[in-house]
């Protein structure tokens, strides 16, 4: 069932920290920004991933798509500047076939989604995180996740997605390399946000996402 108002191309690659070098202790000295969603836990099966829904309001704090996308592209709680200066290792925007060209800019896409939010809308975005082994080749993991987002979300479901590759080892952290896929809760048809993407918002959403990813890895991994 759709989450309705209260009735219930080419990958963009940025060298790490090229635009603004990160100090060795920055991850410790910069306070983390507040968490914006409650995760639903890891996928079942062999593929390593997790799932969550980013609500319009989380713990009494409002979320905007601009903030949600910015914090995945620009890490360590850095303030928003114009233009955005992503610090993640790679990023891209995957669009439905008929979405406006202007939405290939992540800030423009996020603004459109915020501008067309419904007054009593509950679900803002879907967050799928796909993880890879520490020793895995990053370009292979990135293209695997990017291809999944492009085909299974953008093309099959008309859902725009912002993808961001994070490599925690660079900041002296132990977490695995991972790709965040931030997908709109609503499809884009033409120049407008349209209906909700039912199968990724209902009670079986995590299982659906896990099955899609496991099948994709089995076929393309």
What is shown here, in short?
The chain has 221 residues and is of the alpha+beta class. The chain has helices at 26-29, 65-73, 106-115, 138-157, 205-220, and strands spanning 12-13, 38-42, 49-55, 57-58, 61-62, 90-94, 123-131, 161-166, 178-184, 186-189, 192-196.
* Rg, Å, rounded: 17 Å
Class from secondary-structure proportions: alpha+beta
* Run of helices and strands: EHEEEEHEHEHEEEEH
How far the N terminus sits from the C terminus, by CA atoms, comes to 31 Å
Strand tally: 11
Major sheet: arrangement of strands: 1-6-8-9-7-3-2
**Helix-residue proportion:** 25-40%
Biggest β-sheet, characterized? 7 strands, antiparallel
Task: Detail the poorly predicted runs.
Answer: 1-31
Q: What overall geometry do the principal axes of the alpha carbons give?
A: globular
β-sheet strand percentage:
15-25%
Query: Mean of residue pLDDT?
Result: 85
Count of helices? 5
Give the helices and strands, then pairings.
Blueprint: E1 12-13, H1 26-29, E2 38-42, E3 49-55, E4 57-58, E5 61-62, H2 65-73, E6 90-94, H3 106-115, E7 123-131, H4 138-157, E8 161-166, E9 178-184, E10 186-189, E11 192-196, H5 205-220
